[in-house]
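Structure ticket #2291
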Amino acid sequence: MLRSLAASLILLLGSVVAFAQEHSRPNVTPTPRPTPLIRTTPAPASSPAPEGWVTFDSEPGHFSVLLPEIPTDKSEVVQSEHGPYTSHIFAVRGDKSVFLIGWVDYDPSFNFNPTLELEANRDNFLKGMQATLLTNQTLRLSGYQALEFTAETSDRVFRSRAYMVGRRPYLLVAGTPKASDDAANVNRFFNSLKFRQR
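Resolution: structure written out below.
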């Protein structure tokens, strides 16, 4: 039942690994996006964002979040035994950390257990990154069912949140080298996420 989510997470994890292993910002041209669907604007003056951060507003994703720069975009439609599903991934590399947000749109006929989907997000992330789970907490954030966890590999610490918003599982990831302290930016990223009603 969780195969479609697992396949999406493999795509998501591949992006995290590729970004995490880069020593400099990737030389990737962002996928062109229609202006009415996705907007990026400088962070408001009242925001705690440092100079140069932007508010990334995803109309199809129904969220906004602060990021160091405009993220690259990767979307993929996959056929599965539960019908087609679409994964959406946005990633950006900051000075120290990698920031990533992704979600999956399932075929309307696919029925799933929201709690198991969140746990599958966590477990597949740990497996794909070959990471050790450090903390794990089930909670409600902004009124949505969520799972927050931290994990580590030999050289990185990952802070992650998996949300269930309606029928959409979302995953936020911030990965930081162990030798670096980027807590202010990681907190800024997580605390700035805002979902909109669909």
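Closing remark: Confidence is low (pLDDT under 50) at residues 1-7, 19-49.
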